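Contributing new complexes? Match this layout with magnesium ion.
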Amino acid sequence: MKLLMMGPPGAGKGTQAKKIVGDYHLSNISTGEMFRDSYRKKESLGLLAMEFIRDGHLVSDEITIEIVRRRLFESNKEKNFLLDGFPRTIFQAEALADMLDVMQSSLDAVIQIVVSDDVILTRMVGRRSCSICGATYHLDFKPPKVENVCDSCGGVLYQREDDKRESVKNRLDIYKIKTQPLIEYYKSRGLLYEVDGEKSFEGVYQEIKAVLEGLA
Ligand code: AP5
Ligand code: MG
Ligand code: ZN
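Output block (do not edit by hand):
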């Protein structure tokens, strides 16, 4: 199965993606996670990408497409995957279509998590992420068992730099201009499934699951 998880920043893409890839045995490919991981390792790619990410801007199409291409074609081609946060522009979507052509494959579904701007702000302000494994928590909605410590790996939790108010605003603006057109792009190809992202963690998951069961 080949899936895309789309939705505005803070919609819950990463949270749902982690659960789905576990249950459906898919590789989780998150461009945001890949950039943050590379930054933590102080690689030049990560350091460069963070210059854009910090202020809420997109990393260039060229760099982003290249890291996805490498990931999809490494270890003799990924067969079952979920892409979280890619594509984010029409140009990236076209590049992905070309990659899938080469793989003689195609997408099964694009899941769009729908949430309002107000909900997004509450979610981002309270989000905390693990500095080691990238797991995501929320101070009110999903607190860790021990304050500031990751339940799964014991890593210290931190607040992402791009969750500052000004960056969040940029991310939302850019989402509307550059990424929202992808909704029409995938709808016109009959691939788009919208789910209500304002439900509980489990409520959203059940909606996504219903979509995936319907594909089989
Ligand atoms: P990326 O990491 O993809 O960030 P994003 O799209 O802004 O999305 P987030 O990770 O912030 O939110 P999410 O939807 O995953 O929500 P989460 O599950 O954490 O990208 C970061 C940056 O990298 C970009 O801004 C860009 O600069 C660059 N980049 C990445 N991909 C790129 C590309 N393709 N091209 C160019 N640049 C690229 O949930 C949020 C919070 O809400 C959490 O605290 C969670 O616990 C809570 N929550 C989730 N669901 C619920 C629920 N149902 N109820 C209550 N709380 C909930
Ligand atoms: Mg995420
Ligand atoms: Zn962790």
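Reviewers usually confirm one structural detail per submission. For this one: Residues 27 and 81 are 4 Å apart (CA to CA).
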